[in-house]
Amino acid sequence: MRLSGKKIIQIVSNDFEDLELWYPVLRLREEGATVDIAGEKAGEKYIGKYGVPIMSEYAFKEINPNDYDAILVPGGWSPDLLRRYEEVLSMVRTMDEQQKPIGQICHAGWVLISAKILEGRKVTSTPGIKDDMMNAGATWVDEPVVVDGHIISSRRPPDLPDYMREFINVLAK
Question: Does the UniProt entry include the keyword Protease (predicted)?
């Protein structure tokens, strides 16, 4: 198991894209990683766009990003909610400063924009936020997955196999 001993934080809010949250969580657990789920409140049920629930184990304010090897930001509409929490933005900034893997897919780029970490970075996302990404100083490309150092970005659910392959490769290094 390539990721045995690695700890990843998966942040969550309502209206996440079900596959973009669950597929990475399950793939990382298959590789032996511990994936902790954090939401605004611990022990809260969050519902995806298509009705698939997930229960948070921790509240954002309980998370110390120094205890984790990577962070995942799901897509869907939840990034618009997630970027409103200073604790989330602080986690993302800390991961960026420490060059720890940051995974973002679809609309998750909104969180990285609000954390102000995209200047000069090459990324992808759903085409719907292409202008937002570029206005934040990123170079946007239309590819299934883009790896720019420790930031791994992807466009949408059909790209999940490419996204997770690259995220796992970066995390395993």
Answer: yes
Give the pLDDT confidence of 121-151 residue by residue, as tens digits.
999 999 999 999 999 999 999 999 999 999 9
Known active-site residue 76 = no
Alpha-carbon distance 139 to 155, whole Å?
A: 14
pLDDT at 161 over 90: yes
pTM for this entry: 0.97
Give the DSSP H or E segment for 15: none
State in words which class domain 7-172 has.
alpha beta
The catalytic residue among 83, 107, 155, 156 is 107
Structure tokens at 118: 């995209």
